[in-house]
């Protein structure tokens, strides 16, 4: 873990807000160590903001120089009403809940925490891969119901010599591929931005999306949600999958057309799915996909481990301390903001106060 920027006594004048979804109703951290001890060490004030509303308002964030964001949305109106805000520190790697263009217009850095997410997300996908291949939840249900003799009806899918298709070849995808390599699977990937030399070095074949869907026994979605990837897996593309194949969706829900996936699963045109993310979150308890017995589900939280929160918290708060000292932190999403006079004026002010 990198060292954070040392702070001067001016830290008390730099304030940090944490969205309320970090905390329980009685004010305790819902996740344990979220990095606030780094702020306490230098006397930097911080408190919860936003109550339970999904969208932050200008009045929520205007008092702060930096905000730490979990699942709350940060829109243009809120950012435009917070002239002293210099940093939105997002816990995680997805940032579709933050208006990136509005951050840039208003001289606000947006950072993410890939160091904390990489391994927990990779093991989340490995968990789904193993659970689906061994039909773990079906075995569990039959055992609890006294169906011991039915175990022979629940034959699993061996992984050796099967094909694993990974949509995306970023940090998490490569970490997952590294964990899956000892399983003796053929691994293929689709990512228009992938480095062919890097893929070759990992023994991964880069293919078109259509070829990946046609060949794979297990498909895992590990790309970012962008306008180009929204409903990337639509009805036509899901129809390319083998009837014996499984889909694992852990990146962002809207990458998969959930209605189309539900139909495919209902009609047993694929074997099953593992779903951690949803087109609309929280998922409706009456959603028909939750009634299916060939789906394993979780609430966009399977990667939430003590490892995730500890590393993520330190990386996010390291970014806060960097900005408070007038410096540019790592993992900036909107790099174009570095040329913003508005941002430079804020950093100059923080830097001067730190002298």
Task: Detail the topology: elements first, then pairings.
Elements: E1 16-19, H1 36-42, E2 46-49, H2 58-61, E3 66-69, H3 76-80, E4 87-90, H4 100-105, E5 109-111, H5 114-133, H6 136-144, E6 163-167, H7 171-180, E7 186-190, H8 196-201, E8 205-206, H9 209-215, E9 218-221, H10 235-238, E10 246-249, H11 258-266, E11 272-275, E12 295-297, H12 306-324, H13 341-354
Parallel strand pairs: 1-2, 1-3, 3-4, 4-5, 6-7, 6-9, 7-8, 9-10, 10-11, 11-12
Helix pairs in contact: 5-7, 5-12
Provide structural commentary.
The chain has 13 helices and twelve strands. By secondary structure, the chain is an alpha/beta fold. The chain folds into two domains: 9-115 and 305-354, Rossmann fold; 116-297, Rossmann fold. Helix 5 runs antiparallel to helix 12 (306-324). The radius of gyration is 22 Å and the shape is elongated. The two termini are 26 Å apart.
Please sum up the structure shown:
Helix content is 34%, strand content 13%.
Distance between the termini: 26 Å
Widest β-sheet, arrangement of strands? 8-7-6-9-10-11-12
Tally of contiguous helical segments: 13
The fraction of residues assigned to DSSP E strands is: 5-15%
The poorly predicted ranges are 1-9
Q: How would you sum up the major sheet?
A: 7 strands, parallel
**CATH superfamily annotation of the largest domain:** NAD(P)-binding Rossmann-like Domain
SS elements, strand count: 12
Structure classification: alpha/beta
CATH topology category name of the largest domain? Rossmann fold
CATH architecture of the largest domain: 3-Layer(aba) Sandwich
Kindly state the percentage of residues in helix: 25-40%
